[in-house]
Amino acid sequence: MAVPLRVVVVGGGIGGLTAALALRRQGVEVVVHEQAPALAEVGAGIAVGANASRLLRRMGLLDELAEVAVRPLRLQFHRWHSGEIFCAHEMGDSYDELFGAPFLTVHRADVQRLLAEVYVREGGRLELGRECVGVAEDAGGVELVFAGNTTPVRSDVVVGADGVHSVVRAAVAGADRPVFSGTSGYRGLVPVERLPRLPELGFEPDRPALWLFPGPGRHLISYPVSGGRLVNLLAVVPDEEWTRESWVALGEPAEAVEAFAGWNAVVAALLGGLDVVSRWALYDREPVRRWSTDHITLLGDAAHPMLPHQGQGANQAVEDAVVLADCLADVGRDEVPAALRRYESVRRPRTRQLQLASRRGRECFQALDGPAAEERDGWLPQLPDRLAWIHGHDAQAEPRGHAG
């Protein structure tokens, strides 16, 4: 009987845990090492599009996720100054029928907790407080060094799912510099009871929607999470001074309010309801030429960090994870290099395209009033067709690539 592959996943976020669960179900021996001492309630909301939710449904996770998520009924674009709706798209059942799986908004911590619970329940090993500080590859595999431990951990395959500051990425692709967008984002969560119903502006927290407020030089996106108890917001502003690349660094709620002075009543209510706000300098990286060596590969932000303007960071990590598990299924040790090349050949073109599209997304959301905004408003009614390549994608339906 063949000895199962030994895989170490570095990073216990959404991508790393999805990969570990999917790999374990393929008969692969997996251990996840996460540097945090506990899976804490950090971060804010994420949107799970059909391209990820169809994969989570196949993994048997969607029903449990839906219990803590929200299924928005509409997508609404509002004028920045008046708050009136100038474009809207039905979601809910209409979105499901169009793309074949649901669109959900959910707190990032709820997704991470669900994945961890299922993974551990099925016998998976999750090691917390394990900061990876060294990666060394040889012909037979990889040795990892963790802070405070003198004995290295050896594995046949290492998956770097350790985020935008990935130690594993540096071992694969070398050192690179982050690309600063010149913007920062205020992120926060507002209890729904603090928010007024403003039906004349299409803002009714008891009728869940995605509320988008594009405006000249800045924009705000908001949606409910945590079963509708909280409303998540991201407000993006021009900012050359705040350069801390962290989405949990604290900012000042009053600064966020001031940044949108003169905007409409919904934006004022959202920002005015914040007690705590994080401030996040928006960086990405240039697409790398390779993700993998013979025994190491990357996924999620470690492979393709992207700006948030397509809402695809977590979704692409889930796609990566499932495709990687498929490529490593029933693979012997001598077949690992070819399997990792197959994985990369499938995933890298799509994520490169999304990295670049996410950069362009800012131009849509922050167009200046006048011809640029009018051009955007002209194509927004066709938005579902323009996004079909993202949300309609089935990562498991595409060929696994070739070992070139």
TrEMBL record:
The keyword Oxidoreductase applies. Its cofactor is FAD. One of its GO terms (molecular function) is FAD binding. It comes from the Bacteria. Residues 6-354 form the FAD-binding domain. Pfam families: FAD_binding_3. Keywords: FAD, Flavoprotein, Monooxygenase, Oxidoreductase. The keyword Methyltransferase does not apply. This is Salicylate hydroxylase. It comes from Streptoalloteichus hindustanus.
